[in-house]
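Preliminary data (for renewal application), iron/sulfur cluster complex.
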Amino acid sequence: MEKRFTDTLLHWHKRYNTREMPWKGEKDPYRIWLSEVILQQTRVAQGWQYYNNFIHKYPTIRYLAKAPDQEVFKLWEGLGYYNRCKNLLFTARQIVSEMKGVFPDQYENILALKGVGPYTAAAIASFAYNLPYAVVDGNVFRVLSRFFGIEEAIDSTHGKNLFAELAAKVLPKKEAGLYNQAIMDFGATVCKPFAPICSDCPLQKYCKAFAEGKVNYLPIKEKTLLRKNRWFYYFLFSYKGKLLVSQRRANDIWQNLFEFYLLETEEQVKWDEAAVQQWLREQIGIKKAVVGGISPLQKQQLTHQQIRGQFIGVTLETVPPFLENYRWETQKGLQKLAFPRFITSYLEQTTVQKGRF
Ligand code: SF4
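Predicted structure:
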């Protein structure tokens, strides 16, 4: 399965990946490093112009190293996190004074540079020198956890090791740079956090999350599972008289019980019909739906967590592909399933139980 994953991703990249970025295909380690540092806490759309400005003003590392601090800070203005800029200057000057201006070409030496972590080091090593180091970031966690159906939390120690091992395993040693670019772009444009384009995904046939209806569950974060105050917004998606349900599997509260489509958020969300329609459209790609009702706030106090949330009824005209493999149940079917108290107490008050959703 690993080989199929890698080959398919590379094929997609070579034939269909149209994502453009100014530093794409770049082999100059200085430029790759610069772009990666800019992108560490910045979105691509914003970082793009800054990158162009920097390259225009400092086309090589020697130009950057001899630039006055204030001039560089001025160019950085608006990007924030000034430590990145300080490290950039420090490292440029260090490479010029201690390494004759030649960027290191070994992974360990790149990683030893100030402000360079494992992700950036792997990106520079693989893009510039095609060294076999896998990038592991949010995009990679998401794609791997969905395709292989891994329910291990990506931020737990065990999860981090497991994903790092898997990332190294699926990395084609001779095409490391290409593959790293492929998985990063794939995560950003196809297997996106919300509304992944499963309908047009070359990996769909073998994707576990897709087959088992758990695309919205994965990846799992321990940080989320341990929160004291959790906000659960349940979308009651109905289509031709059936409701979407899924079974909770993660190592979390209510394991193995059933629920509706869950959106968990860190903060309370103020829902009204327009906000629901906007979320459906922009976050999960549902363009036509009727918002049936939004429940009052529901609460449940558990031993270590307080759960609060709402139920939102949505009637769909068509089922988006990434929801196809979820379980769709009739009223009769619903009655046979076990739901957590938070949901049953809501159902008892509503018409859903009576078959009018
Ligand atoms: Fe991601 Fe969907 Fe493709 Fe699976 S089928 S890899 S969830 S886009």
